[in-house]
Amino acid sequence: MININDKVPYQGEIEIVKIYDDGREEVHYKDSNVIVSGLGVGLSRLFSGEGSDKVEDYLLSHYQLGVSGSSDLQVTTTYALGSSLPLYDYTDLDIPSLVVTENQIKNDYIFSNQAFGRTNLPVFDGNSIRFNIIIDKLLANNLKSNRKDLYLNEVGLYMADPLGGTVRTTNMQYYDGVTTKDAKHDHEYKVDEGGNGTAYLRCAPENKHVCHQHKIKSWVVEEAESEIAPKHIHHIPIITDRIKSPILVAYRSFSNLYKSDDFAISIRWTIYIR
Q1: Phi, psi for residue 201 in degrees, rounded to 5
Q2: What is the DSSP secondary-structure string of 94-127?
Q3: What's phi and psi for 170, nearest 5 deg?
Q4: How far is the C-alpha of 162 from the C-alpha of 159, rounded, in Å?
């Protein structure tokens, strides 16, 4: 198997540690991390002056946790986690100092309302940048899906917003939103990363019992009709506004960890600069 770290100019390591109330620390995982192409994108924007004009947009200020990593693989993708946690899996409390929601670019499409944790300011010693990401005892506890335990097993580090609204995203579409207005109505919709999903049920204002919906396949809204609306289609709008979006710069899958409020987690992430 090719080691991705042999192919990039920056390398580093990651250590994941459980921290208990009595001060005990237990190392759960330690290995190299993987620097992905987003770091090069961000730095090229910074040095060329073509990105954001705000220094804070180049900070590695966001992280995500996920549940679709594999300890046998270094990466799931190079632009996103395999399955990042939604906001409600982090917490049902409003704690903007710990978790926020942002747009996120994934493979030239946009996910809205994606959850990100906040990182602390790093320490730079001339040869490396060191982050200590604290997953609070309040966050990501007792995760389950269909009554089965979900294990944390992937983490990503993100640059805040290196594009800085300088590039119009005319080639991008949202995974959820509102279709174009055709036949005097529109639909709310949601699709997966392949562009497959549903334009949800819409009922006529004058008759709440006359309703229809559309299937969406590969970003194309299929034809549908109702007793009032003749056969018609809609389109998923292309985004023409400038957006803000963190981009993935480093990633690591790790061995399964079931999080509870018995401990906090310290993710000690180091990027070495050659």
Answers
A1: -50, 130
A2: --TTTEEEEEEEETTEEEEEEEEEEPPPPEE-SS
A3: -70, -10
A4: 7
CA 43 to chain centre: 20
Residue 7's SS3 state is helix
Report which residue type is found at 248: L
Q: Which tokens go with 263?
A: 């401990």
DSSP 8-state assignment for residue 262: T
> 1-5, 130-134, 217-221, 227-231: which range is least confident on average?
1-5
Per-domain residue ranges of the chain: 4-169+241-273, 176-221
- Decide if 175 contacts 192 (C-beta within 8 A): yes
Comparing C-alpha atoms, which of 82, 100, 80, 81 is closest to residue 90?
100
- Which of the 8 DSSP states describes residue 222? P
Give residue-wise pLDDT tens across range 244-264. 788 898 899 999 999 999 999
Integer Cα distance of 139 and 155 in angstroms: 14
- Phi, then psi, of 35 in degrees rounded to 5: -90, 125
Q: How much is the average pLDDT of 111-133?
A: 87
Exposure string over 45-74, b if 16+ CB within 10 A, otherwise e = bbeeeebbeeeebbbbbbbbbbbebeeeeb
User: In whole angstroms, what is the distance from residue 132 CA to residue 157 CA?
Assistant: 11
Helix, strand, coil percentages for the chain (3-state, nearest 5): 10, 45, 45
H helices, E strands: number in the chain: 2, 18
CB 95 within 8 A of CB 33: no
Q: Which residues pair with 100 in a beta bridge?
A: 116
Q: Take residue 179 and report the two structure tokens written for it.
A: 């279709």
Cβ-based burial of 124 (10 A; exposed 0-12, middle 13-18, buried ≥19)? exposed
